[in-house]
Amino acid sequence: MNVNIPATDMPRVVVIGCGFGGMELVKKLRHASVQVVLLDRNNYHNFQPLLYQVATGALEPDSIVYPIRKMFKGQKNFIYRYCEVTGIVPERNEVLTNIGAISYDFLVIATGSQTNFFGNKDFEKASMQIKSIPSALNLRSYIFQNFEKALLMNSTYEKEELMNVVVVGGGPTGVEVSGAIAELKMHVLPSDYPELDFRSMKIYLIEAAPNLLTGMSAESAEKARKYLEEMDVHVWLNAPVEKYEDGKIYFGKGQSIHAETLIWAAGVSGTALPGLQEAAVAKNQRINVNRWNKVEGYENIFAIGDVALMVTEDTPRGHPMVAPVAMQQAHLLARNLQRIMAKEKPVDFVYKNKGAMATVGRNRAVVDLPKFSFQGWFAWMVWLFVHLMSLAGHRNRVVTFFTWVWNYFTYDQSLRLIIRPFWKEPRKKKGDAPPATAGNEAPGMKSAPQTAAVNIPPQGSVPPPEQAPIPETRPMPQNPQMTPPASPDMPGQQMPPAANIPPGEQPQGGIQPNQQLPGSNLPPTA
């Protein structure tokens, strides 16, 4: 396989990732005397701030993505390759990919962030994420699959477990997805599933910090909490999660919630690539850079956006991992690359914070500007306008605008579709008993799968179906001297004679009526 990138006399700038930073950098290098090579494992740019609306059925996936090749159509110095980057070899100025090695004169790492589970494998395995289009579609399918499954359950506990939703993390993503699911509960789901009692459905938002929306003003954080509680979302603060076991999330001081849907929005980490020296990578997988976004220890490798950790007196923990930081760093780096090639001194990066915002739901949002804050309907309109205009492509803006208008006036999010079902590994609960056999099952044979009860409510009086005649059976001759035949599956062994069971008693083994399963919390069988 050959990457087939044309040779050129111009310096080659390889950009890894087409997030907000990578996209802006390529645009700003449009007229520079360089060859720009963009590498990404997706052939589209993804507008992550609206992923939660895809996950909750408010928007179609193609409304928030834009094809990379169409985005840079007509840019003569641009080349794109669809590939997975596996590492870097700085000694040879090469990027390793699954389609081959690509050489560079300047390398820009803009790989963004990934979900941070803080080393907890149980939560990583059990929870759902909202970091990409596939993960958002998986969450959407999983939520509605659970409601379909709840219709088949007999016990209230099992129904609640499938209907309950727990969101871990009180940042913008956690607040926004909690509010979106609460609106589904209020306006959409009861009409779709009239057989379920949505008064028993609980939505929980769990945050380890003392307030929501860390990084925003205390006024906005408190207002967001009040908005969520008005929408019947149970907000738990100062409650770090501890474990997920037996279908329960344990958090705080001995608190627990039984829920099948667990959404993890508790934090992110960087996505450093293999090949960089140890000193260049921080503990949270962000890459240490200087004020020019140059990676520590290298002269021609740069990092921008979420993956870049620029520690200064004003930002001892680095800049916030948000889109405006990535875009501002990309703008400056495009200028600095041209200054470096012209043997001029680069300009230091200074972040201009233009504010922060988060939406909670219909007519509810919070906005922090540098000099003042505001909340409510006007803040919600500002949030809508900013996100609408930030979408790539005129078609996406038009489609998203009319979809929002339709949803606002009809209270109907018609995209609650299970197009690509998502199946998780079955969770084994404590006390689960092995499946009972049919009694005449030979060793090595598997019993037929058991089907769940189909709970269809009665629709008036329906006459019972006509029963088929029972075929005549002949009694077996009773001969006490008869020796039972050998089992075909157990050569050389004799089948034990049937036990003489007194009238009124049941044979041992199997599950009997009104019998409690050992080690199980289920009620006796009927």
UniProtKB/TrEMBL annotation:
Gene Ontology terms for molecular function: NADH dehydrogenase (quinone) (non-electrogenic) activity
InterPro entries associated with the record: FAD/NAD-bd_sf, FAD/NAD-binding_dom, NDH-2, NDH2-like_C
Residue ranges with Low complexity bias: 502-519
EC number of this enzyme: 1.6.5.9
Residue ranges annotated for the External alternative NADH-ubiquinone oxidoreductase-like C-terminal domain, each copy included: 354-409
Top class in the EC scheme: oxidoreductase
Pfam families xref list: NDH2_C, Pyr_redox_2
Stretches with biased composition (Pro residues): 460-488
Region annotation Disordered: where it falls in the sequence: 426-526
Alphabetical UniProt keywords: FAD, Flavoprotein, NAD, Oxidoreductase, Transit peptide
Residue stretches making up the FAD/NAD(P)-binding domain: 12-330
UniProt-listed PANTHER family: EXTERNAL NADH-UBIQUINONE OXIDOREDUCTASE 1, MITOCHONDRIAL-RELATED, NADH DEHYDROGENASE
Family statement drawn from the similarity comment of this UniProt entry: Belongs to the NADH dehydrogenase family.
Name of the protein in its database record: NADH:ubiquinone reductase (non-electrogenic)
Protein's organism: Adhaeribacter soli
Phylogenetic placement of the source organism: Bacteria, Pseudomonadati, Bacteroidota, Cytophagia, Cytophagales
